[in-house]
Amino acid sequence: VEKTVNGTAELSGQKYKTLEVNGFANFKDVTVEKFLELNGKSCMRECHLKKVKSNGNLELVKSKVTEDFDVNGDCEIDESELHGSCDMNGDVHLKKSTIHGDCTVCGSFKAEDTSFWNSLTVCSKKLTLRACTTKDIYVLKSNSGVNIWKSFLKLFGWEDKPKQEVKLIDTEVQGDIDFDGQNGTVILIGKSSIAGKVIGGNVEERE
């Protein structure tokens, strides 16, 4: 079944090939075999999805996505599995989840009890991982700041390097942490460890 809903979609226990919702979406135990497009706020519980594109804030609980997961909006993910690549533009909070593919986040980012099987790329001033495991972490240079001020600095040969922070609490990084902006700080708390190098930043250990 291919379906388009213009308005609120309250769905439970149903199965579709493709599904498009233009409005608020509230799903429980919904399966979408090919492609799900969401234009509006959405909440999905116990869903089985293949490919997801969402324009709007999204909450995903106890669900599974087998291919690409693309969200433009704030994202709350809890007890879920994402098997494809993840691209999220907005504030992201992950709990008790597994990310199998590469993960890119542009916005504030917090994760707890979550495993990242591939690289994690973040464009943010702050990244906090608690009780997580991950491979390499790439922290892209944040675009924050006034453009006029940046232009002024460049005139005098000075480069604007906003500070960026990665806070690791009881977290294992199995690769490198690379700060693209060359002005990063990694804060290690508890039983945190980094197997590789910290590039473009320094390390602080705290209790």
- Rg is 19 Å
Order of helices and strands: EEEEEEEEEEEEEEEEEEEEEEHEEEEEEE
Strand content: over 45%
Report the average pLDDT across residues: 92
Low-confidence stretches: none
**Helix-strand makeup class:** mainly beta
The helicity comes to: under 10%
Q: Globular, elongated, flat, extended or rod-shaped: what is the shape?
A: elongated
Number of helices: 1
Structural summary, described in words:
With 207 residues, the protein is mainly β. The protein has one helix at 147-155, and strands at 2-6, 9-12, 15-22, 25-28, 31-39, 42-45, 48-55, 58-61, 64-65, 69-72, 75-78, 81-82, 86-89, 92-95, 98-99, 103-106, 109-112, 115-116, 120-123, 126-130, 133-134, 137-139, 164-169, 172-173, 177-179, 184-189, 193-194, 198-199, 201-206. The protein has a 15-stranded parallel sheet that branches. The longest helix is centred in the C-terminal third of the chain and has 9 residues, at 147-155. The radius of gyration is 19 Å and the shape is elongated.
